[in-house]
């Protein structure tokens, strides 16, 4: 599981960092946009990416 605390929707660095910390296990990378408000998920092997059990509060 990947978990991160994001303090602001305009800076998703913490989430991208948490995803990238698991790259060896998942084969996924998160490429943060220059404004840090979005990122692109990529699969090293070209697999489709599915997000499950996403929890958001606030």
Describe this structure in words.
The protein is of the alpha+beta class and 58 residues long. The protein has one domain (1-47). 22% of the residues lie in helices and 17% in strands. The longest helix has 9 residues, at 13-21. The protein is globular and about 30 Å long.
Number of domains: 1
Percent range for β-strand residues: 15-25%
Helical content class:
10-25%
Q: What is the gyration radius calculated from CA atoms?
A: 11 Å
Shape: globular
State the strand order across the main sheet: 1-2
Query: What is the count of helical runs?
Result: 2
Q: How many strands in all?
A: 2
Spans of at least 5 consecutive residues with low confidence: none
* H/E series: HHEE
Return the average pLDDT rounded to an integer: 93
Secondary structure class reads alpha+beta
Biggest pleated-sheet summary: 2 strands, antiparallel
End-to-end distance: 21 Å
Secondary-structure blueprint:
Elements: H1 13-21, H2 23-26, E1 28-32, E2 39-43
Antiparallel strand pairs: 1-2
Q: Can I get a quick summary?
A:
The protein contains two helices and two strands, in the order H-H-E-E.
Task: List its traits.
58 residues, alpha+beta, two-stranded antiparallel sheet, 2 strands, 22% helix, 17% strand
